[in-house]
Amino acid sequence: xxxxxxxxxxxxxxxxxxxxxxxxxxxxxxxxxxxxxxxxxxxxxxxxxxxxxxxxxxxxxxxxxxxxxxxxxxxxxxxxxxxxxxxxxxxxxxxxxxxxxxxxxxxxxxxxxxxxxxxxxxxxxxxxxxxxxxxxxxxxxxxxxxxxxxxxxxxxxxxxxxxxxxxxxxxxxxxxxxxxxxxxxxxxxxxxxxxxxxxxxxxxxxxxxxxxxxxxxxxxxxxxxxxxxxxxxxxxxxxxxxxxxxxxxxxxxxxxxxxxxxxxxxxxxxxxxxxxxxxxxxxxxxxxxxxxxxxxxxxxxxxxxxxxxxxxxxxxxxxxxxxxxxxxxxxxxxxxxxxxxxxxxxxxxxxxxxxxxxxxxxxxxxxxxxxxxxxxxxxxxxxxxxxxxxx
Length: 391
Hints:
- The protein is α/β, with parallel strands linked by helices and 391 residues long.
- The chain has 2 domains: 3-255, Type I PLP-dependent aspartate aminotransferase-like (Major domain) (Aspartate Aminotransferase, domain 2); 259-390, Aspartate Aminotransferase, domain 1, CATH 3.90.1150.10.
- It is 42% helix and 14% strand.
- It has helices spanning 8-14, 40-48, 63-76, 87-98, 113-125, 138-144, 167-176, 189-192, 195-198, 226-240, 246-280, 297-303, 318-327, 357-363, 379-390; strands spanning 80-84, 104-108, 129-133, 149-155, 180-184, 202-206, 220-224, 285-287, 310-314, 332-333, 343-345, 369-373.
- The strands form 2 sheets. Strands 1-7-6-5-4-2-3 form a 7-stranded mixed sheet, with helices on both faces.
- Strand 4, helix 7 (167-176) and strand 5 (180-184) form a beta-alpha-beta unit.
């Protein structure tokens, strides 16, 4: 068997491994910012053109970082990857590397607040025009695309309202006008993702979430073809300083070893909890792509085969949301997701707090909305915790 025939679980443990002369089992941390050359001629040659497995400076590349990049690329089904200091460094990096003044971007309007800031505030400052559409409306995508549209951007599953965008259909429309498809794929996770196969040109992850999975470090990654990653992304990233550190890359490698087991267990629990809460009938709304009541249930099943690890509930008001949050005993109130610990977030007052009221209302981010990231605790314990808080 070659690596291409390995399952995702096997790739997540073994892909990209490099061993030193000592034959270590656990991947080595090459905690160095620079590299030594035997001769001046060797240094000159390396700066002219890097050979396989050659490095010159940690901002450009590092053996530990290369292992993480190769492993996540194998898991995602991409040719190459560039690891970044955070998820937002990845989003900013891929968009800034690709776009120039006069270019046009079409984006889904349901985005994380920092992604909206990059599109609305930073890119437009430098002459990029951005059009926002309802990500679930294919006719809106088609109407917004133009001959000068350089890229489309969307979250495959939106944060925090969990709308699912049709990757294959949007990609077909975008490619017809020559635009690249860039997807923030955090909620889908590398475990359930088939985004490259479905048409994405570049996939972005906040490795801070499921890839680390234990709340330890910030990180991100951009995945795509070797030509795009090394020809477009790498020159921008290595000169602007958004690279990941070797130690963080090592943490992410360790996270990948267990990501398949963790994410599948979390998704199983999320489905059990969402199903039970909906059946209880005590909440105005339970949102989870794995429920048949979800507007894009069929698409979620076709695209991911799962509803993944996050659900959202609406309890009707900010006061009711705060009361519920303050009664929780197992869930942690925080603003991360994809962690081994279950986390409850009130997007209206935290992650999406700076959005205009009209925008929040348009996106469905109501005062009563609570996002629940399901961790590795017992599903029955989590459900009992929620039921006690709901009352």
